[in-house]
Amino acid sequence: MTLLLRVCQSILVACLMVTAATAEPVSINRGTGLGYVFNHRGNCYLIVPDHVRQGATRLSLSTSAPSSIGDAEIFRTYAPGMDLALGIVTSGLSQRCNDRFDALRTDLQPILDSTENAQLVRVDAGGLELRDDMVITSFDFESITARPASRDLGAEIYQGSSGGILRAGGTLIGMAVQSQGIDDAFFLRADEIAARLGRLLDTGPATIVRDPAMPAPIEAAGLCPAGTFAPEEVTCNLEPLSPELSCSNLAKGGVAAFPPSDTPPRLILDLPGDKALPLRIVALGSSGMAPSATMPKGILIEISSTNGTPRWRRFASGDMPPTGRFEAPNGAAPYATQVAITLQSSWDPALPTALDCLSLQ
């Protein structure tokens, strides 16, 4: 019995180790470089060495076999201070964007102090995943230097390897950003990357430095899908940025904007008719109106199905990506007489928050 238990425990540990090693890179622009995708609060993000994008803001992506093809829009660069750019995956990788942002937050110091063995993981444009044994030669608080375990690999390993990920025992520990000759490669530490991204992606106030090299905001047209019904009235808890940008505009297809405030804007939508209606999707859109305004980020949607005093319950929540399109589906299609939308945070708390449209289905 004891032997059987030990065998079962060994199998369980082995399975957990395999599960932990899920971090995989994606090929960028047909093999010109690599990146890494992860999920955070309902959105799929891409991190990539800034030099890999070569100034482009739109990138094509492909995974290892079975290949999924997608694309991403870069909306933040950390260069020149750090060779890193952040984008939002806009299509194609919904089934492969499974790694969570929290996986990057692992304290790497115990791992780096206890092992020198690692593995460089890459994927070529044909979907073949390549793994090369590496030896960690040095590290500091921001970076890791490693060389191939086999000197026979030479410089070949580094052609197109920027953005490849370094794993140790199944844990993502770094992203390749440059080769220092034939014998060494330079990696950004994953926990340092997470520290930089966390200040931007986590809900709540964040200091965002605008990047003048990033693309202009998209036009408001097409931000929201056609709705099956419109709210009779939209009211809110804050005065608008100006009378012309009142939240009541949203009931008529207009734009609303709110000044920076410690109080999150909360919109109350009264649905048409006297009876509760089934609600499947709430969609919001924002062009940001940059540089004079920004987009919402954290969004909470609640519904009430009562007449009279509302009894709020959660419908959906998540982050609006920098593309400005947010759709919150609820497969249960609960009945509602009112909808409450709280804009919990924004992409730049120092600026007014703009909302171009909303739709209900």
Automatic annotation (TrEMBL):
UniProt keywords, alphabetically: Signal
Signal peptide, first to last residue: 1-23
Name recorded for this polypeptide: Uncharacterized protein
Species per Swiss-Prot/TrEMBL record: Devosia salina
